[in-house]
Amino acid sequence: MNIKIITDSAADLSKNVIEQYNIDVIPLQVFLNDQQFEDGVTIQPNELFQGMREGNVYKTSQPLLTRFKDVFEKYAKEKTSCIYIAFSSGLSGTYQSSVMIKNEVLEEYPDFDCEIFDTKCASVGLGLVVLKAAQLAADGKSKAEILEAIDFYAKHMEHVFTVDNLEYLYRGGRVSRTAAIIGGLLNIKPVLNVEDGKLVPIEKIRGRKRVFKRMIELMEERGNNLREQTIGICHGDDEEGAETLKIMIREKFGTDKFYVNIIGAVIGAHAGPGTLSVFFLNKEAK
């Protein structure tokens, strides 16, 4: 049975990967004043990051409900079995909306075979889960085998990241105005992760080099067999920083498999230019 893999643009997957595995991606929305865009469709990450540097303030929202309905109805009519691998319900209402639309489609197409999975993951953390599922689907694995892998990867996926400027986290309501100002003056870089699908700060570190070192330490503390993993790295229009992090990881753990991509517009609107993140599998299920 051919299993169709569906996700949303918060997975921050490259166009090459999307095309290679024929993944259906539902775009989340980005707003600039009264202008409405779709992530990866009518606004690209580089455009958003440049706008943020120029002072633009972007807001985001879950996908249009019609996007879900169009995709789900298409596969319902084709009688195609599908899995929608969703952005964390702790960070967006995307998952809840997909469930609602699936139930609507089931009223008209009661045989619609679609599993919806709340990964509690974001950005390339979600992307690596989707990529694994797409590879298994391409290899002809059963739906049960793919769902088992999704569950494992989602439960073991670590997200460790830092932002270059606390101002963007302040705009998103993640830190106070005072913390943003003081952080900027003292060159403080927060290190954060995702726990139970929500952003949680780990600590604050002064200086970019120390942040990189701490991220590597966290990988060593939490990671499982890092040499054999595909390590995800995502950046906020900072290819140089991503390459530096990649080199440090390779030197420390001997890793030679990486998935590196720019952060998409929806995640980027909250994290800002200069954000750097690393994703890997941990030792214990979350």
Automatic annotation (TrEMBL):
Keyword list, A-Z: Lipid-binding, Membrane, Transmembrane, Transmembrane helix
Transmembrane segments: 258-281
InterPro entries registered for this protein in UniProt: DegV, DegV_C, DegV_domain_contain
One Pfam family matching this protein: DegV
PROSITE patterns in the record: DEGV
Origin: domain of life: Bacteria
UniProt-recorded Gene Ontology molecular function terms: lipid binding
Keyword Repressor annotated: no
Its biological purpose: May bind long-chain fatty acids, such as palmitate, and may play a role in lipid transport or fatty acid metabolism.
Annotated PANTHER family: DEGV DOMAIN-CONTAINING PROTEIN DR_1986-RELATED (PTHR33434), DEGV DOMAIN-CONTAINING PROTEIN YITS (PTHR33434:SF3)
UniProt name for this protein: Fatty acid-binding protein DegV
Originating species: Tepidibacillus decaturensis
